[in-house]
User: What shape does this take?
Amino acid sequence: MDLFALEAANAMVGNRVDAAAFEWALGGGTVRFERDCVFAIGGATARATLSGRVVAPCTTTYARAGDELSIDQIITGRFLYLACHGGVDVPLLLGSRSTYLPGRFGGYQGRSVKSGDTVPLGEPKAEPPAEGFHCAADLMPRYDTGIVHATRGTQEDLFDEAAWLTLSESEYRVSAASDRTGYKLEGPPLSNRSGTLPSEAGCPGAIQVTGEGLPIALMADAPTVGGYPKIAVVSEADLPILAQRRPGETVRFVLIPIEQSQRALKRRASDLDAIRLLATRSASG
Amino acid sequence: MTDARLRPHPLGDSAVTIAFGVERTSELLGLIHSAARSLEAANIPHVQDIVPAYLALTVFYDSLHASYEEMAATLLDACEHRARAIAHVALPSEHRIPVTYDGADLEWVCSSTGLSVEEVIARHTARSYTVDLLGFVPGFAYLSELDSLLQLPRRAQPRPRVAAGSVAIAAAQTAVYPLDTPGGWHIIGRTDIAMFDPARDPPALLYPGDRVLFERVE
Assistant: This one.
């Protein structure tokens, strides 16, 4: 859901950014390391301890075989990422190691990891970063602001100026009815000229508007096509900020031109390169 | 034909949706399907996925290496010159899908249409269908056009779970559910054919523009 946090956690432990890692939602739990392991946690913040010692977020941490990592309830955000040096050893399927729960394929046996599972880690190909390597906050998205940039959607001519004004000047609250497929947003309705259209492609971040004018932001497991008009699409650089908003928390949308949105995505990619470079240097130095 | 009216629009940072027209017709759909096949064959750098639909086709691309302006211009150019590439384009495939007609809604379909079970089956198997588009879940193909006597509105309450392999109808379309999912279509039968297999290449059995014929088995 929060691709940047996943990639950054991988970079901090010296993995390829697309290595498999654990995504941890809402609740707490405990992981026991069966072998020595270098790991980092990122994304949502939580009280975390490694065999009793506090684990700092976004910091490379060394665990010994037998150590237990306990994640208490998540404090801010929604999805926490645990990356281990060497990555989680799951097969590559359709170019991805991720789990697609509705189709029950991908990732670890096509399902969520549950109590009692032993999940294999891959063999590290390089030296791990030094213990205590910390990723600076200015290389991370501004999760705390709740400000989400977006570009105009493919049905921009089905919405009038009042709808655009409403979208960019209102607060929208993430509904309790929100999951990996989409986040329903509660706030002033967005009037549009057509309830549904012949289906066409959507994408994660697309904000579609139902007949009643209610916006729904499509998320990671969104269907590939849909028939609701799309008023806007969340900038990829800011999709992590929306993904980490909990039910009841609010967001504000700021409309920007596509060129600006693509520049922001490139900046995010270079921030990720910087994290990887700094982590790698810490290993050799 | 309608090339001068192709209208590109960004779908977020990493996709371009090109509108081909405003009215849903089988001619327009055919044009979009052939454009999608020729764009596939053209192997345009940085293009990651092509999603044809009723009025538009959408191209996903690597936006770290190509800007929207560049990609839109390249794609418009490729669409306008697609006739040149057509010789190398894969032709639509024809598929035969064996069906056991014993679906949970078969009786309801009979009573709603006034047809017998035999007549429903005969009408469902009598014609070949075109894959309009893929969507909803991986491998779900919207097939048309259903016999007019079989056309019924969707269920008022979708089922929370429809089994993979269920053959169903709704409005002017028919489909096979590729995965266990919620569903609001009327289930008339089932097949053992895997509509989606992540280990297969390509994983989806059907591609937009393909033809499908259902065959009755006991």
In short: Residues 26-42 of chain B form the longest helix (17 residues). The mean pLDDT of chain B is 92. The domain at 94-216 of chain B is CATH 2.40.100.10 (Cyclophilin). Chain B touches chain A at residues 9-15, 17, 19, 24, 51, 53-58, 60, 63-64, 67-69, 133-138, 142, 179-181, 196, 198-199, 203 (CB under 8 Å).
